[in-house]
Amino acid sequence: MKISLDGQTALVTGAGRGLGRAIALALAEAGASVVAVARTADDLESLAQEGAGQIQPLVADVLDTAFYAQIEAMERLDILVNNAGGNKPMPMVDVDDATLDWMLDLNVRSVFKTAQAAARRMSAQGSGVIINMSSQMGRVGSPRRTVYCLSKHAVEGLTKAMAVELAPSGVRVVSVAPTFVETPMTKTMFSDPEFSRFVLDRIPMGKLATAQDVAAAVVFLASRQAGLITGESLAIDGGWTAQ
Fold it and tell me: What are the chain's domains?
């Protein structure tokens, strides 16, 4: 069963690198016209070159109120992938106010505001899919990730509440919840044998997710084949949260 997103417009935040980049490319390959959002122009330019004319770069900051106005002003928006986010692992007792505020602003406030702007655009046209990037840490707890877990539990709750509220407008809202993903950024983390063992011992399938694993799930959830799926979170975690 071939998934086609031909004729649809998607917006992906945090699209310059890692998961966001893989997602933008996968949506473009499925036929969508993709607006790729990141703060670094060079990353977006190279992404657009890879996207074979299907990817339009947009240099913007997801914490900037002007960005939300740009979303509402789009002629059409069929798919939002609310992917931008970040983490600063540290013991809970050491979290300072600046770190707390930064993570809550990026992982919760910007996710809400971006989704809110997209919901206004989609409700006006009577259709759309909002896909929030969550994490397995939105279902469980983990040491040194207290604020990250807090923020991703918030994303899971937001997804459910938005799904219920927006369903009458023809808008679906879902989330994806990956385990640790193999990217250039996480490579240094897994060079620590103790940390690597901590993670892999908790994944029954014994391996990390890839960016392509997550991107494939996003493409499916954005498609007509997932037309009755809303308010749900798809775990891509090799069984971590099944235990």
Answer: 9-234 (3.40.50.720)
